Amino acid sequence: MDVSLPDQLGAVERESCAAAQAVIRKLHLTAPPEQTGGQQDVAFVPVTRAQWKSVLRDADLPRLQRETDEMVAEILRLRTASGGTVGKQLPELLRRLGRSVVALGAVADEVSRFSPSWTSAAERRLADDLARANRGEAQGLFACLEQGWVESAWAAVRRHALAAQATGRALEAAARIDQASLPDEDRYQRTLGVSAEELSPGSGVASRARLLAAWAKDPKALDRRLRLSMRHLIDDSLPLTVKLLNHLAVLALSDRPLVAHRATLLARDLVTSHLKSEPELTCSVIARHGDREPEMLSSHRGQIAYRDAYNRAEHQEEKARAAMDLHRAVLEGDVKRTATVVLELLGRMVPQGASLATVRDLLAAEVDQPLCKLLASTIRSDWRNANAHEDFRWDPVNSTLLLGGQPADLEQVLDAAIRARAICHGFEHGVAVSYTQNASLIIWGEEDSNYVSRDLAILQAAGEARFTVLDIRRQGTLVRLDVPDVSIETVREACRAILRAAMADPGVERWEVRQCSPDRLPLCVDRSGTRAGLQVAESLWEIVDPLPFAELPMLANAMTNAGEPAETAASTVLFSAAAHVVGERDRLSPALGQGDPAAKDELISTTKLISDGAKAAAQLLEGSARRKLLAFAEVLAGDCHRLKSAPPFELINGFVPADRTLRRHAPRLPWITGLADSAV
């Protein structure tokens, strides 16, 4: 409800007029100044219409306007008070009014960063319009007081207040969710410039691989776009490391952009400040936080499962259970962990196993720390207690959630959990930004990576190989990568990803690439296959793409693990090796015909590497299959030696054994539907 302000001042005590003027003069109080900038100048963070609505809801500017109006009404009551009362109460009321205006202006500035789609210019200006009217109301009140409660000056105050209230009602209407009016938008395309098809399918854990694979298609343009949308966080000189890129991309996609960006900025500034003043303590606290990555990953997967359960539930009782599970997991996991890190950075001790109520009280005591205030706002003891003690249920008669016997809005509980989660994620993003900005101040301890950090390294390796991963799971020394169905073209990329991943985590004994279609076999490469591939690739990474040479032993190993006979594996490897030799010869034929010695050297070098790959594959097979591969490798090596002294044009018809092999053998790739019984 809007605060009602009178049309006219009415009777004013003369003593009050003089006292108000004296307070203004004595304390040198001035009206809140005009703020520079505005929505039209600074909107640079692209968001969807749905994200925009969450920005308006989280900003809650109408509530801040009501606080200003309430302060104005309280000051207004002093017009009939004694001079002594005015002298005692007015200074603090004016300071509180000033803080209220500054707070609203700061939030309006936050809102003004966001550039929503499918939104009128008038709606985008609402926050700025409200801040302007709010400042006008306060400035008008100061003028009214300076003039001794002049009626004409009060008219300006009321005019600005009414304008602010009308704008506040427009903001409330704009913030309401009407799913039917929301366009079907691609949030990934809108915020990052990459389609949902490339990033959306799969788990959030494995999004790093998908992001890097998508980014590799146009890195300069995508970097430029991301930097522009995050210019309030980073400057152009800051390198976009893989870790920072992932954090900023997740931030751009947040369901709750306003609180996520706010937490990111606050965390960045807090960590940076402490890195500069107490680098050892800061790095130690952050390192201990990083050691809890396994718990964080487990909590994350649990939260996703609870939210999925909420979305799938057919009955409100089931939704209530899922929402309460999510709320508990977020507060007891993310919020408590994040709050502990923040408090430890501030030099506060958090007792082992501290309750959420204790954590909230510790946060509330840090009155000068806005990040503590933001985290404390996520903790509601009554909800937490009802949840912890199973004192909640869905009331089907009254269609409401009961927490500790008190009615609560089910959607508000879910919304509170999502908001808290976004704030904690924002803290992680802020730490990543600060660490990148202050790399020279970071004190790294002894590396003792946990399995989560190794999983992230594997996903980074897969992404850099442009191989899409939907999820990653680990069981002992086996790592399973869930991926879209592979094709002839992507089998090589799968081998490349496994090879890079094996370098990132040498402790893995077996790699299992599991496809989406349940009727397709997984592509499995064990340590003998990766070791052989790495031996072939060892000296090549800096000078040439080691695939397809290193792919050959990995194919032989994968075929064996799929239960294929050695002869079939050898035939597939022979076909692949010969196809690459013939393909390279045909590609270089025009240059060879012109006598280009560089083309000759390139073809001989490539064929020699194919020979090395075939030899490595032969060592993984037995009997006649091994002999066939070794014989082919030796023939290729012999041709390379013989053709070294031949003129370039002669190589156009060289390497005839590869042509014969190509005609005699056909591949069988058991992981690809349609290749089981047909040559390709």
Describe this structure in a few short sentences:
The protein is mainly alpha-helical.
Task: Spell out the key features of this protein.
four-stranded mixed sheet; 29 helices; elongated; 680 residues; mainly alpha
Layout of strands and helices, then pairs:
Blueprint: H1 14-27, H2 39-42, E1 45-47, H3 49-59, H4 61-76, H5 83-112, E2 114-116, H6 121-124, H7 126-146, H8 151-175, H9 187-192, H10 196-199, H11 207-215, H12 219-229, H13 242-252, H14 257-277, H15 279-290, H16 293-312, H17 316-345, H18 356-365, H19 370-376, H20 381-388, E3 392-395, E4 400-403, E5 406-408, H21 410-437, H22 451-464, E6 471-475, E7 478-483, H23 488-504, E8 510-515, E9 523-526, H24 527-537, H25 551-561, H26 566-593, H27 597-618, H28 623-643, H29 656-664
Parallel strand pairs: 1-2, 7-8
Antiparallel strand pairs: 3-4, 4-5, 6-7, 8-9
Helix pairs in contact: 1-5, 3-8, 4-5, 4-7, 4-8, 5-7, 7-8, 11-22, 13-21, 14-15, 14-21, 15-17, 16-17, 17-18, 17-19, 17-21, 18-19, 22-23, 24-25, 24-27, 25-26, 25-27, 26-27, 26-28, 26-29, 27-28
Number of extended strands: 9
Radius of gyration: 33 Å
Given helix and strand content, the structural type is mainly alpha
- Unreliable stretches, pLDDT < 50, 5 or more residues? 676-680
Largest beta-sheet characterization? 4 strands, mixed
Distance between the termini: 73 Å
| Approximate helicity band | 55-70%
Strand order in the sheet with the most strands:
6-7-8-9
Mean pLDDT: 92
Percent range for β-strand residues: 5-15%
Shape: elongated
Count up the helices. Answer: 29
Give a description of the structure.
By secondary structure, the chain is mainly alpha-helical. It is built from 29 helices and 9 strands. Strand 6 and strand 7 (478-483) form a beta hairpin. The protein is elongated and about 115 Å long.
